Amino acid sequence: RKKELATVTRWIEIARDLGAHTVRVFAGNAPREVPREEASARVVDGLERSCEVAARCGVLLALENHGWLTE
Fold first, then answer.
1. What CA–CA distance (Å, rounded) separates 33 from 6?
2. How confident is the model at residue 71 (pLDDT cuts 50, 70, 90)?
3. I need a surface site. Which of 10, 11, 18, 46 has the fewest CB within 10 A?
4. How far is CA 70 from CA 17, 23, 27, 63, in A?
5. At what angle do helices 2-18 and 36-57 cross, to 10 degrees?
6. pLDDT by residue (tens digit) across 2-54?
7. String of b and e for 37-65 (b: at least 16 CB within 10 Å)?
8. Strand 22-25 vs strand 60-63: parallel, antiparallel, or unpaired?
9. Residue 17, Ramachandran bin (φ over 0: left; ψ between -120 and 50: alpha; else beta)
10. What are the phi and psi torsion angles at 44 (to 5°)?
């Protein structure tokens, strides 16, 4: 989880440095044994953290709307 958040942060910074306006992100995957509500809460937390970085960098995050967690 920390590694994934660091990766998103890095790509947001790269986008800023290149003058890109948007970074596309995915909700990711969770083990099927993790309740959907818990997995969704993790996604929301990660997106909130990533959105804070994106806002500081002037970059928009675009969430893909396919996959188990975002269907």
1. 25
2. low
3. 18
4. 29, 17, 7, 9
5. 30
6. 899 999 999 999 999 999 999 999 887 788 888 988 988 988 999 999 999 99
7. eebeebbeebbeebbebbeebebebeeee
8. parallel
9. alpha
10. -60, -45
How is residue 6 written in tokens?
A: 């660091």
Owner of token pair 């995957």: 29
Query: Scanning the structure block, which residue is given the tokens 């986008």?
Result: 15
Which two three-digit tokens encode residue 12?
A: 């947001």
